[in-house]
Q: What sequence folds into this?
C-alpha cells in the first residue's frame, strides 16, 4: 500500500483542493467535509504547510509513516512544500513530493493588469469601478509596483553600513548611536547612474521643505541634523537588486527605537513592523559582537507576537541579519555555528521560536562593491578588504569563511543566488544571498497578493454589473405579472411602513447578536458591545493581569533595608522594568485595537447581509415573482457598507496619549526615606511612594485601549444605523423608481431586456477571460 495525496493550491484565489487515495491504482477521492484537510481549503498555503504532513499522516493515514504527494501550483509554493516534507522526514515520516508546475505569477500579473485596463474603459464596468471605493483601493494596490523593505536594527549593528552595501556606495551617514529621528526612504531606479541620487526633505508636519535635488553624503548629514526633519525621500540605483518591470524596491531606513531623545523613533519602527496591510519584508540587523543586550527588547517582543500569529509568512517576513561577523576571529575565538546558536538563543529568550538567522559582513560587501565601481578606498579600507579576501578564500586545508554556507536558504533562494554573477569574496559576505531572499519574498508573497487584489476587484465589478442587468431581465414577465410588480414597487417606494419594518429588523438583529455575544463583562449601555470580540477583550484582560503580577513582584522585591547605593541600583532596575512594560503595552495595543476595528466592521457586514435577506423574505416582498425578488435582493446586497472610513485620529496616538514614562530620579522619591545616621533606605517605604503612580501609568494605557474600542464600536454602530436609515432606503427608492419607469412602456422594456441579455453575455465572456487567467 502506498498512500497518496494530491494538493492543488491557487495562491491568487486562496483556494486549495485536496484529493487522496490508498494507492496509485485507486481513484482519487475528495475528502469528507469533516476531514482535517478541509480546514485549509481557503487559507494561504504558508499559513498551514509547516506541520501539514505530520497532521496528514496522523489524521488521514493512521500514522502509516510514508506517502506520496503530488503538488500542483507555482514554484515559490512548491519550495515551501518541499521544506515541509523535509521537516516531516526529520520526524520519521517519509514524504515523496512530485511537482506539477502552474503558470508563474509574473505572467499572470501582466495578463490581469491588461484585464484591469480593459475593465476601466469598458462601458459596462467603467461606472461601477469609479463609484466603488473598495474596487478602486484594490486596483490601486494591484497597480502599485513598489515593494517595501524596512531595515531596523539594534544600536551599533551597522544598519547604515548594511544599506550602503546594497547601494554599492557611501550614501547614508554611519553613526554608533541612534541619533536619527528621520526615515530615509530609498526607491530603486536602475536608469540612474551608479552613486547618483536625488532626494527631497519633509518636516514633521509632512510638508516638503527641501525640493528635489542632487544628494550626497554631506547633504544627508546636514538634513539629518535639522530637528524638523521627519522624512527624506531618495531615488537612485540600488545595485544589489535588479529592478523588474512589475516591481520597484523601496528600502526604508527606520529610526532606532532605543534613542531616549525622541519617542518617535520607537513609534515609527513600531508602525512599520506592524504594517499588516502590506506585510513588508523586515530586515532586522543584529550586532554579532553585542548579542543579549536589552536595548531592543521591546521590538523583539513585538516581533515575537507577530510571528506567532501569522504562520510561515510571518517567519519569512522577518529576516534576522547577524552583521559584523567579520569582526570576530573565527579561528581563535569561536565558530560561526556557535555565534549563530548564541544569536538564536537570544531571540528564543524573547519568544521568537525557530528564528532564521543569516550571518553577513556588510562592511566587506560594501567595500568590494565600491572598489568594483572604482571608488577611492582609504588605506584602512583597502587593508580591511584585503584582509577579508585572505580569510574568506580557501587555501590548502583551510576552507575559508563562507557565511552563505551557514544560512538557512530555501532551494528557490539558492537558485536565484546561483543565477547571478558574483565574485567569490563578495558572495561569501552573505549580502548577495540576502538580496536573493528579497527576490524570493517578492515572488512568493508580493506578486500573488497583487494578483489576488486585482481578482477581487474585478470579481466585485462583475457581480455588481451582472446583478444590475439580471434585475432588468427579471422583468421578462407576462402582463399580469408586470402589473403586480409595478403595483408592489409603487407601494414600497417611499413607504413609511417599509422604513419601520427595516428599523424593526435591524433592532431585532442587533438584539439577537447581543444575546449571542457574551464577549466580556466589559459592555456599554447602548448595546454596542455586540461588536466586541471576546478574544480581543480577553487579551486585554490578560495584559491587566500581567500588570498586577508585575506590581506584586515589585512589592516583594522592595522589602527590608538597603544602602543608598544599593537602593539606587534597585531603582534603576525598576525604572527599566516599568519602561519596558510600558513600551510593550504601547506596541501591543494599537494593533489589537485595529484588529478589533476590523472585526467590528466584519460583524456589521454580516448583520447587513442578514438584514437584507430578512427584509426581502418579509411580507412586503412576498408577492413579487421570484426572479424579480432574487435580483432585487442581490442588487441591494451590493451596496458598499463603509463604516470607519473617515477615521482621522490615529489609534497609536490615542493609545499612547498617556504621559510617556520618564526616568525616575532617586532623589525625587521623597526626602524621608533615608536613615540619617547610616544612610540606610527603608525599601518598603521607598517603593510605596510611587507604586500607585506606576500602576496608574501602566493601567492608563490599558484603559485607553478599552476606551478606544468602545468609542469605535459606538461610532460604527451609529454610522451603520444611519446607512440603513438613509443610504439603503434612498437606494431602494431609486431602484424601484427606475424599474417602474422601465415598465411604463412595454415596447421599450422588451428592448431593454434584450440589451441587458446582451450585456450579460459580454459580462460572462469577460468573466471567463478572468477565470482563465486566474485558474491553475
A:
Amino acid at each position: 500500500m502506498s498512500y497518496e495525496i494530491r494538493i492543488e493550491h491557487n495562491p491568487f484565489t486562496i483556494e486549495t483542493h485536496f484529493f487522496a487515495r490508498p494507492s496509485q491504482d485507486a481513484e482519487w477521492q475528495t475528502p469528507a467535509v469533516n476531514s482535517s484537510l478541509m480546514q485549509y481549503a481557503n487559507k494561504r498555503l504558508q499559513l498551514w504547510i509547516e506541520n501539514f504532513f505530520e497532521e496528514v499522516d496522523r489524521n488521514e493515514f493512521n500514522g502509516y509513516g510514508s506517502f506520496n504527494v503530488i503538488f500542483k501550483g507555482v514554484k515559490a509554493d512548491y519550495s515551501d512544500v518541499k521544506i515541509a516534507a523535509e521537516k516531516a522526514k526529520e520526524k520519521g515520516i517519509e514524504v515523496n513530493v512530485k511537482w506539477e508546475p502552474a503558470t508563474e505569477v509574473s505572467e499572470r500579473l501582466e495578463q490581469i493588469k491588461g484585464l484591469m485596463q480593459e475593465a476601466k474603459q469598458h462601458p459596462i464596468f467603467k461606472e461601477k469601478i469609479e463609484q466603488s471605493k473598495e474596487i478602486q483601493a484594490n486596483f490601486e494596490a494591484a497597480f502599485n509596483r513598489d515593494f517595501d523593505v524596512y531595515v531596523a536594527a539594534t544600536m551599533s549593528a551597522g544598519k547604515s553600513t548594511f544599506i550602503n552595501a546594497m547601494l554599492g556606495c557611501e550614501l547614508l551617514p554611519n553613526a554608533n548611536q541612534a541619533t536619527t529621528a528621520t526615515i530615509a526612504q530609498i526607491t530603486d531606479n536602475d536608469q540612474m547612474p551608479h552613486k547618483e541620487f536625488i532626494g527631497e526633505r519633509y518636516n514633521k508636519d509632512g510638508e516638503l521643505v527641501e525640493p528635489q535635488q542632487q544628494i550626497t553624503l554631506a547633504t544627508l548629514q546636514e538634513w539629518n541634523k535639522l530637528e524638523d526633519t521627519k522624512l527624506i525621500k531618495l531615488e537612485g540605483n540600488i545595485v544589489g537588486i535588479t529592478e523588474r518591470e512589475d516591481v520597484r524596491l523601496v528600502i526604508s531606513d527606520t529610526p532606532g527605537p532605543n534613542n531616549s531623545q525622541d519617542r518617535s523613533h520607537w513609534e515609527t519602527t513600531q508602525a512599520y513592523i506592524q504594517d499588516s496591510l502590506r506585510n513588508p519584508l523586515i530586515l532586522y540587523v543584529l550586532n554579532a559582537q553585542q548579542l543579549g543586550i536589552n536595548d531592543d527588547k521591546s521590538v523583539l517582543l513585538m516581533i515575537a507576537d507577530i510571528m506567532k500569529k501569522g504562520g510561515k509568512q510571518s517567519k519569512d517576513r522577518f529576516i534576522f541579519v547577524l552583521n559584523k561577523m567579520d569582526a570576530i576571529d573565527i579561528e581563535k575565538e569561536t565558530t560561526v555555528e556557535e555565534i549563530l546558536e548564541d544569536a538564536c538563543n537570544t531571540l528564543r529568550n524573547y519568544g521568537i521560536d525557530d528564528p532564521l538567522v543569516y550571518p553577513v559582513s556588510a562592511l566587506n560587501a560594501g567595500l568590494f562593491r565600491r572598489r568594483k565601481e572604482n571608488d577611492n578606498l582609504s588605506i584602512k579600507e583597502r587593508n580591511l578588504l584585503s584582509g577579508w579576501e585572505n580569510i574568506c578564500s580557501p587555501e590548502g586545508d583551510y576552507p575559508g569563511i563562507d557565511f552563505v554556507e551557514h544560512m538557512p536558504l530555501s532551494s528557490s533562494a539558492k537558485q536565484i543566488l546561483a543565477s547571478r554573477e558574483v565574485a567569490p569574496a563578495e558572495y561569501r559576505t552573505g549580502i548577495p544571498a540576502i538580496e536573493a531572499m528579497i527576490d524570493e519574498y517578492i515572488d512568493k508573497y508580493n506578486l500573488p497578493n497583487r494578483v489576488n487584489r486585482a481578482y477581487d476587484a474585478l470579481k466585485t465589478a462583475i457581480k455588481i454589473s451582472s446583478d444590475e442587468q439580471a434585475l432588468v431581465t427579471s422583468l421578462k414577465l407576462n402582463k399580469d405579472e408586470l402589473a403586480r410588480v409595478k403595483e408592489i414597487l409603487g407601494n414600497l417606494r417611499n413607504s413609511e411602513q417599509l422604513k419601520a419594518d427595516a428599523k424593526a429588523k435591524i433592532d431585532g438583529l442587533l438584539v439577537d447578536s447581543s444575546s449571542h455575544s457574551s464577549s466580556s463583562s466589559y459592555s456599554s449601555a447602548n448595546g454596542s458591545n455586540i461588536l466586541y470580540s471576546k478574544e480581543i477583550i480577553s487579551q486585554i484582560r490578560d495584559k491587566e493581569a500581567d500588570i498586577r503580577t508585575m506590581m506584586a513582584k515589585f512589592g516583594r522585591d522592595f522589602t527590608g533595608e538597603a544602602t543608598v547605593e544599593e537602593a539606587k541600583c534597585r531603582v534603576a532596575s525598576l525604572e527599566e522594568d516599568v519602561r519596558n512594560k510600558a513600551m510593550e503595552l504601547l506596541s501591543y495595543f494599537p494593533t489589537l485595537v485595529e484588529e478589533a476595528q476590523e472585526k467590528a466592521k466584519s460583524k456589521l457586514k454580516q448583520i447587513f447581509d442578514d438584514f437584507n435577506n430578512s427584509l426581502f423574505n418579509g411580507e412586503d416582498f412576498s408577492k413579487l415573482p421570484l426572479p424579480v425578488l432574487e435580483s432585487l435582493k442581490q442588487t441591494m446586497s451590493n451596496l458598499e457598507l463603509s463604516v470607519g472610513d473617515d477615521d482621522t485620529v490615529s489609534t497609536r496616538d490615542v493609545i499612547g496619549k498617556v504621559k510617556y514614562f520618564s526616568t525616575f530620579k532617586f532623589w525625587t522619591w521623597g526626602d524621608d526615606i533615608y536613615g540619617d545616621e547610616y544612610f540606610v533606605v527603608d525599601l518598603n517605604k521607598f517603593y510605596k511612594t510611587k507604586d500607585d503612580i506606576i500602576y496608574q501609568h501602566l493601567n492608563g494605557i490599558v484603559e485607553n485601549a478599552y476606551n478606544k474600542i468602545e468609542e469605535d464600536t459606538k461610532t460604527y454602530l451609529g454610522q451603520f444605523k444611519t446607512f440603513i436609515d438613509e443610504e439603503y432606503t434612498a437606494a431602494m427608492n431609486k431602484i424601484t423608481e427606475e424599474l417602474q419607469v422601465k415598465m411604463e412602456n412595454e415596447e421599450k422594456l422588451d428592448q431593454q431586456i434584450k440589451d441587458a441579455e446582451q450585456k450579460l453575455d459580454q459580462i460572462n465572456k469577460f468573466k471567463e477571460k478572468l477565470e482563465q487567467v486566474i485558474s491553475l
